[in-house]
Every structure is written in C-alpha cells, then in structure tokens.
TrEMBL record:
PROSITE patterns listed in its UniProt record: PROKAR_LIPOPROTEIN, RHODANESE_3
Pfam family membership, one: Rhodanese
Protein name per the record: Rhodanese-like domain-containing protein
Rhodanese domain mapped to chain residues: 39-125
Entry-linked SUPFAM superfamilies: Rhodanese/Cell cycle control phosphatase
InterPro entries found in the cross-reference section: GlpE_sulfurtransferase (IPR050229), Rhodanese-like_dom (IPR001763), Rhodanese-like_dom_sf (IPR036873)
Amino acid sequence: MKKIVLLLVLAVTTISSCKPKNEGVVDVTVEDLEVVLNNDKNVQLIDVRTPSEWVDGIIDNAIKINVTADDFEKLALEKLDKSNPVYIYCRSGGRSKIAADVLLKNGFQPYNVLGGYMAWEEKNK
C-alpha cells in the first residue's frame, strides 16, 4: 500500500513538473515535500521563519531567509537558482505563501508547503 501511495505522489509530482514554469504558486503537503527531498537533489528548500523560530529547529538543508526582513527579496535573488524549483515553509503556511508570491513575481517556480514546520514536526514525531 505504501508503494502505491509513493508511486501516486511521484506521478503527481512528475506531472506537475511538466507544466509550464511560473504558472502560479503550487501548494504541496509535507508528505509531498518529503518525497521530493528524498528524490530530487536539485530542489531548493527555504525556511522563511524568523531567527527566533529557527532556534526551534529547521528541516535539514533548508536555506534560512526571513520573509519579514526588509531585504528578503534581495537575499532570495542572491541565494536561489531560478532554474530549480523552490519549496517554501514557515511555521504554519501563511508567511510562506507571501514569500512564494514574491518569488513567483521574480521568475521562480515556488511550492508552498501547507501546514509549514508545524505539520512537518507532527508528521515526523
């Protein structure tokens, strides 16, 4: 059963990656994120929470860029590669959507992780 679910998630991810770039922000679950992180070495993951929230932990290999910082857009443009998808999370999903909209405007293909770090932690207890 797990293999069937994994194959379905991979199929959906593959199909969605065939869509034209920058069609909009794509919402994904933490389960989708886990599959992508395990299978795509080119994926970029950014944590857009504040420094005080990073102390609580981060998802492995996430790039920390505080979305509430005045220079968020500038830092994102410096640190991220437009040719690779960008998965974005915050604490619960609100700020990551704001960050995703900024990245979309700048030519990235953003994926908003629904439920954010709280959902990730809950799934990985």
